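Here is the promised in-class demo. Please do not try to memorize the tokens; focus on the logic of going from shape to residues.
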């Protein structure tokens, strides 16, 4: 259940918000501020954030391609 809520929270994030959260996670893990178990949980969330960011970037890329095709006509 918590994982599903986490995904819903991520899906509403902008690209910039997701990158900020990802940067925070990396910082915590690198600084050793959290336990191994928490690190694994944070790593999993980080992977979801990366997946979310890639989706946003793919949509932006498609939009750019559409704009470019329109301009070439």
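The designed amino acids, position by position:
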């Amino acid at each position: 259940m918590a994982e599903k809520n986490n995904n819903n929270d991520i899906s509403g994030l902008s690209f910039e918000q997701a990158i900020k959260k990802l940067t925070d996670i990396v910082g915590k893990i690198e600084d050793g501020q959290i336990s191994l178990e928490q690190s694994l949980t944070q790593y999993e969330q980080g992977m979801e954030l990366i997946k979310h960011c890639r989706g946003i970037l793919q949509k932006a890329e498609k939009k750019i391609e559409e704009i470019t095709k329109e301009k070439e006509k």
